[in-house]
Design a protein that fits this description.
By secondary structure, the chain is α/β, with parallel strands linked by helices. It has nine helices and eight strands. Strands 1-2-3-4-5-6-7-8 form an eight-stranded parallel sheet, sandwiched between helices. The chain starts with a strand and ends in a 5-residue tail after the last helix.
Length: about 260
């Protein structure tokens, strides 16, 4: 089956440079049969980045992608707390560069009004918007979004394509929160491969709104693939989740860029 991983990083592999880290990532992907990787954020993560940090991290991803355009795509790291700098980065990396979407992390909760300008620009460029979400039992860190925050943002931008990263961790809640928002897909990456998660997601959302992701190297390809490969679902649904859905989501922007999906 074709496998496209929505959630990969070059930090944490022990490489001294983006090229070394990317080579290790590709080597692991080859062992696990991963066809395409979506990379975001650089070598040293900044949760509340300055404009200079945004640019540096995006430069590192661009360098990592430079020899691997046939295997990997990138998401530009942006922050609602740095709207002007983020818009410049979107134009530099997506409009004028090879990246295919936006990555938002924990600088500011994504239901804030400042996020609107970033999502509008993404929609204009036909780029996807990937938002980290989590629901933590002990409380989220300041600025960390929940699926409820993403749902509020998605409701304001029905023509944008948004991805609920980690499905909020507490996937039983995350799945139900975004159920009524057809412009939102969920990412399965990062939480433990608990039995029943994929089955519930297929039942509540339909298989076309679910994306396989790993969050490597924080999690392994194998443990996250196990969620999908071990699920009691049809092979048709499995193919959608492992790769066909992501290829479909990225086809509009790849077509604009002249890249064959």
């Amino acid at each position: 089956m074709m496998i496209w991983d929505i959630h990969c990083h070059i930090s944490g592999w022990g490489g001294r440079t983006p090229d070394e880290s990317m080579a290790k990532l590709i080597s692991m992907a080859d062992r696990m049969g991963i066809d395409r990787l979506i990379i975001s954020m650089g070598m040293s993560l900044a949760s509340d980045p300055t404009p200079d940090q945004l640019r540096r991290q995006n430069d590192e991803v661009l360098q990592a992608l430079s020899h691997w355009h046939h295997r990997a795509f990138g998401l530009v790291y942006v922050s609602p707390k740095q709207v002007d700098a983020s818009l410049r980065e979107i134009d530099r990396c997506v409009r004028d560069g090879p990246m295919v979407g936006l990555k938002l992390w924990t600088a500011s909760r994504c239901d804030c009004p400042e996020a609107d300008a970033l999502v509008r620009r993404a929609a204009e460029l036909r780029a996807v918007v990937f938002q980290h979400t989590w629901i933590k039992a002990g409380g989220n860190v300041p600025g960390e979004s929940t699926p409820m925050d993403l749902a509020a943002l998605a409701a304001r931008h029905p023509t944008a394509s948004l991805i609920c990263g980690h499905t909020g961790g507490q996937w039983e809640l995350g799945i139900r929160v975004v159920r009524g928002l057809p412009n939102v897909t969920i990412d399965l990456a990062g939480f433990d491969p608990t039995a029943g998660v994929v089955e519930m997601a297929v039942r509540e959302l339909g298989a076309r709104r679910i994306l396989y992701g790993s969050d490597v190297p924080g999690r392994s390809f194998a443990s996250q693939l196990a969620k999908v490969l071990g699920a009691d679902i049809s092979d048709t649904d499995r193919r959608l989740i492992l790769g066909e859905n992501l290829r479909r989501l990225l086809t509009p922007i790849l077509t604009v860029k002249g890249v064959k999906p």
